[in-house]
Specification:
- With 314 residues, this protein is α/β, with parallel strands linked by helices.
- The chain has a seven-stranded mixed β-sheet with strand order 6-5-4-7-8-10-9, sandwiched between helices. It has a three-stranded antiparallel β-sheet with strand order 1-3-2.
- The chain is 46% helix and 19% strand.
- The structure holds S-adenosylmethionine.
- The site of S-adenosylmethionine has 16 residues, from helix 9.
């Protein structure tokens, strides 16, 4: 009896009913509710206090803002009474005006964001630096990669890229011809408890993989060490399924002789046309090649390229 009286008392006030109908539809701040109802803060706050006391509101603090929502009871007299009230609000002229005003308030919310970005425009790139989000963006983009893929990492070395790929959930076959590198990679994977990586000892020119065994093949800073880079690209193409990707990263042609001794390179980088001809000979589609300036604070480094292509379906 007591609850029923409270239900009727609460719903007897048209402002509270209007507020509840609005807050059932949309979470709103007090100011927004004032705008829709066309009432001063003192009145709106008083009604909100009554509704909160009845346990009908959920609030969420966001900094200095508090947002309210109608927590519609699951069952019981409050629920039954609200169903009745809500049904009677259909075709109610005040309710229709409230819905229109709510639409305007929501448009104003969107307009505030839009006008902020309209004002900022291209300066956003300078502003965004406050987020320092380079790594975050790279991580977000990596989520677009299908985690079901299997990739061969040719010349895996210490397995730095294989580990990155495994962290994304990809299955990796990591190949290298140096047993010391294989051991180093194995230790790295074990230390991180990385799963899904299989190490295979073998030559880039005769990869220890079956035809079409993997979805993609990657060789990062490996071609420059090989006696025959074209042969390695042919091998990578053989091991990927039709439609699979072959990606190579290496230096563009340069004159840094010191790299022969210090980094053990055989080739001083590559011409774009050379890379294109190796992709063509491997029956890959024409590669997309992008060149990036060398980036090192301590040494003058040549540019690098990323070349990628798909194995044609035939
Ligand atoms: C510069 S390291 C790059 C390692 C790794 N891809 C990275 O980016 O950190 C080159 C690697 O290629 C391997 N390698 C060189 N010639 C190879 C060949 N003919 N077959 C297989 N691996 C080879 C080396 O043992 C070495 O681990």
């Amino acid at each position: 009896m007591e609850t029923l009286q409270k239900v009727f008392k609460t719903f007897a006030d048209p402002t509270r009913v209007r507020a509840l109908a609005l807050l059932e539809q949309q979470e709103l701040a007090v100011q927004e509710l004032m705008d829709v109802l066309g009432m001063a803060q003192s009145r709106v706050s008083r009604h909100l206090a009554i509704l909160r006391e009845a346990g009908l509101l959920r609030d969420r603090r966001d900094g200095t803002y508090v947002f309210y929502r109608f927590a519609v009871p699951e069952a019981g007299p409050w629920r039954d009474a609200w169903e009745l009230v809500r049904a009677s609000l259909q075709h109610d002229a005040t309710r229709e005006r409230d819905v229109a005003a709510l639409g305007q308030v929501m448009q104003a919310r969107a307009a505030r964001t839009r006008s902020f970005f309209d004002a900022v425009g291209p300066e956003w790139d300078a502003l965004r630096k406050v987020f320092n989000d380079d790594a975050l963006r790279a991580r977000a983009i990596s989520r677009l990669v299908d985690p079901g893929l299997t990739v061969v990492d040719v010349g895996t070395g210490t397995g730095i890229l294989a580990a990155e790929l495994a962290r994304l959930g990809l299955r990796v076959v990591a190949v290298d011809h140096s047993m010391r590198m294989i051991d180093a990679a194995r230790s790295k994977f074990a230390a991180e408890h990385l799963e899904g990586i299989e190490l295979r000892h073998g030559e880039a020119g005769a990869l220890p993989l079956a035809d079409r065994e993997v979805d993609a093949a990657l060789a990062h800073m490996v071609l420059q060490h090989l006696p025959s880079p074209g042969e390695a690209i042919r091998e990578m193409a053989r091991c990927v399924r039709c439609g699979g990707a072959v990606v190579v990263v290496d230096f563009v042609r340069h004159e840094h002789e010191w790299m022969r001794q210090e980094l053990g390179v055989t080739w001083l980088g590559f011409e774009q046309t050379e890379v294109e001809s190796w992709f063509r000979d491997a029956h890959l589609e024409p590669p997309l090649i992008q060149i990036y300036a060398g980036a090192s604070a301590s040494r003058d480094l040549p540019g690098t390229f990323i070349a990628s292509a798909r194995r044609s379906e035939s």
